[in-house]
Amino acid sequence: MLRIAIVDDHRVVRDGIEAVLGRDTEFEVVGAYEAGCPFIASLDRCEPDVVVMDMRLPDGLGADFARRAKQVAPSVRILILTGVRSEAEMVMALEAGVDGYLLKDSSSDDLPQAVREVAAGNFYASPEVMRRMRDLSVANGESVTPREAEVLVALRDGLTTDEIGERLHMSASTVKTHLAHLYRKLEARNRVEAVREAIRRGLVEEA
Questions:
Q1: Among 25, 129, 151, 138, which residue's Cα sits nearest to residue 84?
Q2: Which of 48, 84, 183, 189 makes a 20 to 30 Å CA pair with 116?
Q3: Predicted structure pTM score
């Protein structure tokens, strides 16, 4: 039996995931959490095989909690289940080492299959996610790097240079270098234009 933890800030979603997985005796839900920090705090106790986690949580990004979870329990498998279609956040999740990325508008039959696949050590993603990752590029053909993608999301969230550095554990000068690269790639003159253009190109979603 596979032990499953659920992390999503909407109770109706948590209940829905539990109901879908509860149809199969192969799965046992061992914990459901509305935020990332309570999940991390209880990880040693609930010992899940697979964690089904939203990308955007009240206390941070699912990608960050996925990275922290794997530091605490390296064998745990993380399946992102989200409505987020932003390419930048997809990149962040993959860089964090998640084992799957499933969109919430997928068929309910896809969820059990995705859980089985990641539990078996395979990567699982919605077809749209795979297509968008293959097409991840900007108009001039230069790809946005994973680190630039993280900076882009922080820009979208309205963070200052110092706040971006604090979130991403980098110096202010490094943040400014990434910003300069992003402005060039997005043909933007400032933060507002960079975020607007990134949203237009589908690199990030509106906050």
A1: 129
A2: 84
A3: 0.71
